[in-house]
Specification:
The protein contains five helices and 16 strands. By secondary structure, it is mainly beta. It is globular and about 55 Å long. It starts with a helix and ends with a strand.
Length: about 375
């Protein structure tokens, strides 16, 4: 990490890491590797069946008792349960980070990464749930999700409103290539409808949205897609197919992903092929992939290593980008966690800003 050595001397790095270990106040993020590790589906821990956002009663209890090194009585697992039918939740992420790149653009900053408030209203003896996900920082307030969910025939459901599109792995890291390039991430929701079929060891989703991530559609074309996932004893496989119709630049997304548990190791992988029919110029194919390994050193302490690959146009050679990350996640007691990491990205010489290195500390509070 040649660049970061210029930003942080060894004593300063040690001081920051010690400060982070002692003072970081955070909670465990329900990432896909946890679902793979426990052989559970996203719907087990999240009000939104496709994952992310407010946690269910089971999700809160799991994070309170199973993830940290020790169980704490600082706050109850059900702190956000106002009544039997009204629940609130929230997330707050705060970063300290430093970056440098080949363009000579250096930065070191503290920043609010994100802050959200969740509300779920389920009338007594009703199969309907009204769900709201509002981002309140940074910047102006932004509605991320606002939908009505109807459960029927067990765990099957219909959803209508503003929502995240079911696609690939529900990674927490929106800056990962597989989430950034495809555009299916926590910064990009859309208006539409979704049918979810939840079985014991499988799930299938069908969805139609505007395909614009805007308040309303800008043409008479829509985004259509389907996602399927199958769970086995210690691994799972899934895939997503999406067609985003448009008068110009129609796109098709082909997605495959999987997860595997071997002892204390949890592996994730995802690959995406994106085809764009360009109105002007030849059609374009993009390839973006990720592999992630998680290792639990002890209860409450996880090491995450990722490798990423992005080819922005397969018709050209030597234009690929790669990125590698190392992240340490430590939860000493319930609802307290430190995330510290380094990331090294290498792009093409013609875009020096894409070759960069990042070091960060993150605190994350949720309820």
């Amino acid at each position: 990490m040649k660049y970061l050595n210029n930003v942080f001397s060894v004593p300063v790095i040690k001081l920051i890491l010690i400060w982070g270990l002692l003072l970081a106040v955070s909670a465990v993020q329900a990432e896909p590797y946890l679902a793979v590790k426990t052989n559970a589906k996203c719907s087990a821990c999240h009000v939104n069946p496709i994952g992310g956002g407010m946690r269910t009663k089971f999700g809160n209890l799991f994070g309170h008792t199973q993830l940290p090194a020790e169980i704490s009585d600082i706050a109850a697992a059900d702190i956000g349960e106002i009544t039997d039918y009204l629940k609130v939740g929230g997330n707050f992420r705060y970063n300290a980070q430093a970056t440098q790149n080949d363009a000579g653009e250096d930065s070191s900053t503290f920043r609010v990464e994100s802050a959200q408030v969740y509300v779920a209203l389920t009338p007594k003896n009703s199969k309907f749930t009204l769900y709201l996900d509002q981002q309140v920082a940074p910047g102006a307030a932004v509605n991320r999700e606002a939908f009505l969910l109807y459960n029927y025939s067990g765990n099957h459901y219909v959803k209508a409103g503003k929502m995240y599109v079911p696609y690939g792995l529900r990674l927490e890291d929106d800056s990962s290539f597989v989430r950034q390039v495809t555009g299916f991430n926590f910064d990009s929701s859309d208006n539409g409808v979704e049918l979810g079929l939840e079985y014991d060891k499988a799930s299938v989703n069908f969805f139609i949205t505007n395909g614009t991530s805007a308040v309303s559609n800008n043409d008479d074309k829509f985004l259509f897609g389907a996602k399927a996932e199958k769970l086995f004893n210690n691994f799972r496989v899934g895939g997503t197919l999406v067609v985003n119709g448009a008068e110009e630049n129609e796109q098709r997304y082909y997605n495959l992903y999987g997860g595997l548990t071997v002892g204390n190791w949890v592996f994730l992988t995802e690959a995406n092929l994106i085809e764009t029919e360009q109105a002007f110029g030849p059609d374009k194919e993009e390839l973006v992939s990720l592999i992630e390994a998680n290792y639990q050193l002890q209860k409450g302490l996880n090491i995450k290593v990722t490798g990423e690959y992005y080819d922005p146009d397969r018709s050209f050679s030597n234009n690929q980008e790669t990125r590698y990350s190392l992240v340490v996640e430590y939860a000493p007691i319930s609802m307290l966690q430190l995330r510290a990491g380094v990331r090294s990205s290498e792009g093409i010489p013609q875009q020096p800003s894409r070759t960069n290195e990042l070091m960060f500390l993150q605190t994350h509070i949720y309820f």
